[in-house]
Amino acid sequence: MPACDPLNMSVPDEPIALDGESAVIESLRREVAELEAELARSDRLATLGAMSGAVAHEINNLLTPLLSYAGFALTQPDDSELSRRALERTVQTAERARDVVESLLRTVRVPSTSEMKARVCVLHAVEDAVGMMIRPPQASGIEMIIDVPGDLVAGISPASLQQIVLNLLLNACEAMQQGPGSIVVKASIYKQNANKSSGCSVRQCIELRVIDTGPGVRSDLCDRVFEPLISSKSGCGRERQQGGTGLGLTVCKRLVEQVGGSISLRSEAGVGSCFTVTLPALEAESVRKAA
Q: What whole-number distance in Å separates Cα of residue 26 and Cα of residue 14?
């Protein structure tokens, strides 16, 4: 019988047992990804539910002057100048009502395949998110400042970035419901330091900040607001808004981390809060494709 040579080893024809374990792990990963996508959709619908009351209120506020303007035009048919002004106001009010409804539809609709591509002009996403707000911040005495260059392109889908910005803006507006103030949305690009961990896996990153002058969040909650069911509002001495899920910031964190980014909160009681979102940056030439 020939001696057994330990170096003369052949590869087994049949797959090893670990292949089965790999298949199970891959299946679990797909299920987790599906659950995360479902969580994002649920948060979007929860936002829609919270906005529905504002929609009804806003539409009702618009219907009253609309009916008044139309009534002026009907009761004074011989006064052409008055009728013209009344009809102009009627058209303007009807257009505002149309914009409110379109904002609601944009919030609930399913993004198209092209919109799910991981490329977006940051300024366009911010402007779309502001347009989705049923009640403009200015209507509550809140100054809205957007300082975002038009040539910044982030490696994330438009729908995801819109959802992130919309959540942060709604949080800021709710935090400032007790009085006037300002919300600033700023963005800039920087080169990541290779020996500095910033949560961004690419050399060039985009830093998007949403800053409000609200009451702030308690320091012990700043690192926990991204956990499920932990509300940043409770850190301001207020209960979470009815109809919310407490998952908005959790969803934001997941959407950001899926593209290799990060999100953090810095806040000071009585001064305000600053949410910082770090995203991978794409070449400026991609702006036209991202539009």
A: 20
**CB distance 112 to 137 below 8 Å:** no
Q: Rounded distance, CA 105 to CA 128, Å?
A: 12
What is residue 20's predicted lDDT score, i.e. its pLDDT? Answer: 66
Per-residue pLDDT tens digits for 166-198:
889 988 988 887 668 899 999 999 887 654 555
| Residues 233, 61, 168: CA angle, nearest 5 degrees | 25
pLDDT of residue 189: 93
